[in-house]
């Protein structure tokens, strides 16, 4: 009889969960850390960004920045290593005071200390020379007391390595540049780990398939796990939910980089599985560049400042849900790369600055615990994610395809406040007795009351 009662109780609980719109078996939380832990930003202080804008980083809640000094400035003659320039040392001090880690990019070719010759045409990008320089930088960063990771180069197929060594842009063999870059990874890893064991060393590429070639390369260091991805979409993408490759992209063969829906989540999952299979370790994905250029193109037409502001918090939630270690938005200020910045060259804060700051205020201290919308609906329709910390619960909801929709406010949510993507209160409309909110490309935040039930799909009433 006790066994029968136990089975009946389990069945009753299962049916009750279904009736309430909750999962019958509690899934593990998507993340065990505050959302803010993954907030990163590419800064441009080495390209003329005003130093005074350092004061804005706390408003954004940033925990990581990508910053660096050029190799040629740190080693003007072979083996003659310099301390960090005063301006960079001052930035490091500010980062440490604000609890911000540094992703230090090693690059670029150092033809001053290691000039190319007929006998050694690749001397300016010599792996062992780069490794020794990496050891020097590691010692300086360690002494500065900041958390740091070391990124090996920046998009080697775009910057110098492919041009100097040769091969295909997509890494398809024979591509000697891939071999050379993996030798760089090996040399840097060996030198950095001797200097500071456990320091993250990460790759850098914006072509997703190249990370597949790196992961299965026979000379990749044993236990190497750092993937430095530049996750840019393209003009066929409707937003951050949709990646640039297709499931059958010819240039990616023999690999399939993404499912048929081109969902960002499946692209990250496939990349992790491939890396795990070939390295035997659990990979860490660091997105060290992701952004959208104002006046660029996407599947819906022209990218406006308001659309970038809508895409930014969506990208951070997608990254956190996929288990990405850090997402560095590209970039804090326009500098030399065009209208990607949260701040333009005149110092004006674009709308995306405000949505970044609002995201930090509203969910930065909360954990992302659940994706409520259907698993098979990641690139279209309504997206809903639940954030929690103690008694605090907040839903973040938007339209992945940027279409206008009406969201009924479920009485079980006990919603206490609704905020738009900028952190401003939302006026809630009514249709007869049903309270509802309007959705679009920009997320809204719904703060739930104590004892609320975050069931999905929402019901207009009971």
Automatic annotation (TrEMBL):
Superkingdom, taxonomy of origin: Bacteria
A molecular function GO annotation: hydrolase activity, hydrolyzing O-glycosyl compounds
InterPro entries: GH, Glycosyl_Hydrolase_39
Name the record gives this protein: Glycosyl hydrolase
Keywords: Signal
Signal sequence bounds: 1-26
Organism (species): Aquabacterium olei
């Amino acid at each position: 009889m006790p066994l029968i009662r136990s089975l009946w109780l389990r069945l009753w609980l299962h049916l009750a969960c279904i009736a309430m719109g909750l999962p019958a078996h509690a899934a593990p939380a998507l993340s065990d850390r505050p959302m803010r832990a993954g907030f990163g930003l590419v800064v441009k202080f080495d390209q003329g960004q005003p130093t005074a804008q350092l004061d804005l980083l706390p408003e954004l809640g940033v925990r990581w920045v990508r910053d660096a000094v050029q190799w040629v400035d740190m080693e003007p003659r072979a083996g003659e290593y310099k301390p960090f320039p005063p301006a960079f040392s001052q930035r490091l001090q500010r980062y440490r005071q604000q609890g911000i880690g540094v992703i230090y990019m090693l690059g670029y070719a150092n033809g001053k200390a290691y000039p190319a010759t007929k006998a050694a045409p690749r001397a300016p990008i010599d792996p062992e020379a780069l490794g020794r320089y990496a050891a020097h930088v590691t010692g300086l960063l360690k002494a500065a007391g900041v958390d740091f990771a070391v990124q090996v180069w920046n998009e080697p197929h775009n910057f110098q390595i492919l041009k100097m060594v040769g091969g295909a842009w997509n890494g398809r063999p024979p591509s000697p540049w891939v071999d050379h870059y993996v030798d760089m990874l090996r040399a840097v890893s060996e030198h950095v780990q001797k200097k500071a064991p456990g320091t993250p060393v990460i790759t850098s590429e914006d072509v997703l398939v190249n990370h597949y070639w790196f992961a299965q390369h026979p000379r990749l260091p044993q236990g190497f796990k750092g993937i430095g991805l530049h996750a840019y979409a393209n003009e066929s993408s409707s937003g951050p939910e949709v990646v640039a490759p297709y499931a059958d992209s010819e240039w990616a063969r023999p690999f399939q980089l993404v499912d048929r829906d081109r969902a960002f989540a499946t692209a990250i999952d496939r990349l992790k599985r491939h890396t795990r299979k070939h390295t035997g370790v659990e990979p860490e994905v660091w997105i060290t560049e992701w952004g959208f250029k104002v006046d660029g193109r996407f599947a819906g037409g022209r990218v406006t400042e308001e659309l970038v502001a809508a895409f930014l918090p969506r990208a951070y939630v997608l990254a956190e849900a996929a288990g990405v270690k850090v997402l560095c938005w590209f970039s804090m200020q326009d500098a030399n790369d065009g209208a990607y910045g949260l701040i333009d060259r005149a110092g004006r804060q674009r709308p995306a600055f405000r949505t970044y700051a609002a995201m930090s205020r509203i969910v930065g201290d909360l954990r992302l615990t659940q994706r409520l919308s259907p698993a098979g609906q990641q690139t279209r329709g309504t997206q809903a994610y639940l954030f929690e910390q103690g008694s605090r619960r907040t839903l973040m909801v938007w339209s992945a395809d940027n279409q206008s929709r009406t969201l009924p406010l479920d009485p079980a949510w006990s919603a206490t406040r609704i905020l738009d993507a900028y952190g401003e209160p939302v006026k809630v409309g009514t249709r007869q007795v049903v309270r509802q909110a309007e959705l679009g490309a920009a997320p809204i935040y719904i703060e739930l009351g104590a004892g609320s039930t975050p069931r999905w799909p929402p019901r207009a009433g009971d």
